[in-house]
Amino acid sequence: MTSKYRTEPQVKFKAFRDLEKRRVEASDTVWAVLVGSKLAVQTLSDVPDQTALLADQYPDLAHVQRMNQRLDRAGQLLSAAEREVCTMALNFAFGLHEDFVKSCIRLLVTLGKASNGAANSNSDTMHERFATATAHSMNADALELFHLTRKIRNAYTHAAGLVREDLVTHFESLTTTQRDTWTALTREPFRVPSVGESASLGVPGLIGALAVQKRLAYDVNLGLQKAIPRDVWADIAVSDYIEESRKTVNGPTALRSVRGYQRPGFAALELKDDELAAAIERKKSGTL
C-alpha cells in the first residue's frame, strides 16, 4: 500500500497542490510543537529548584501566567502533552482530507457525475460515494485503515477518548494484510484494544493515519483522472494558470504560457496543444 501507488502519475491541479501544501504545513507545525514540548521538559528539569513557579523563573515568557505551575508539575504536563497534540493533529488532518475529497466530489457534481447528496456526505461514506461516482476502485486496505482511524477520532468526539465496542470490532475485523500494513506504518506491534481504555493514537498512530489519508488522496486523484473528460481537464489547466499567474489568455503567447505552466502539474494527462488551445478559446468566449 505504501510504495506501489507512488509510481502512479498524479494530476497536480490546484486543489491537490493546496492539500499537499497544507498537509506539509500542518505536519511541520505538529512536529514543532512536539519537539518544543520535549525541549521545554528538558530545560525545566535542569532548574535546581523544582518547586519554583514558572512565572518567577521565566517572568518575560508570553502566556506564562496562564500556566503558572510549579516547574515539576509543568514538566509533567508537558510530558503528557504529546498525546493531546497528536489528537488535535488527527482532527485537523481529518478536516483537511474531508475538505479535499468533498471538493473533488463537488467537481463531479458540476459534470453531472455525482449528486449534491454525495458532495455533502461525511467521512463515513465519502470515499465510497466518490468510488461509485467515478467507477474507480479505492484501495481496500487503505480504506479499512482510514475507517479505523476515523473511529479512533470519533472516540474522542463522542466517547471521552475511550475505546468503544465498535472500535474493538473494527480492530478485530482487519485482515492479516491490513494488520501488517498498520504495523509497518506505525512501527508498533499490532494490538486489539479493550473497551474502556484510552483510544489515544500517539505519534506512531498519527504517522499511520496521515500515511493512510495520503494514500487515499492519491487514489482520489487517480479516480478523477478517469472520470473527468480531457476537455474539462484542459479547462482546469487554463483556469489554474490564470488564477496563479494572474494573467489573461488574450495575448499571442497564451498557448505557450499555458503549455509551460501545465507541463509539470498536468504531465500525467499529456494534454495536447490543440486541447489547450481549445480551452483557451472557451475561456476567451466566456464558455469556460
- What does the overall shape look like? globular
Q: Span from first to last CA? A: 38 Å
Order of helices and strands: HHHHHHHHHHHH
Poorly predicted parts: none
Helix proportion of residues, in percent? 55-70%
Helix/strand structural class: mainly alpha
Number of strands: 0
How much strand content do the residues show? under 5%
Q: Mind telling me the C-alpha Rg?
A: 24 Å
Number of domains: 2
Describe it for me?
By secondary structure, the chain is mainly α. The protein folds into two domains: 9-227, no CATH class; 230-285. The protein is 68% helix and 0% strand. The protein is built from twelve helices and no strands. It has helices at 14-45, 54-57, 71-110, 116-119, 126-134, 140-158, 165-173, 176-186, 202-227, 230-245, 254-265, 273-285. Helix 1 runs antiparallel to helix 3 and helix 6 (140-158) packs antiparallel against helix 7. The chain starts with 13 loop residues before the first helix and ends with a helix. 29% of the residues are buried.
List descriptors.
single chain; 288 residues; mainly alpha; 2 domains; 12 helices; globular
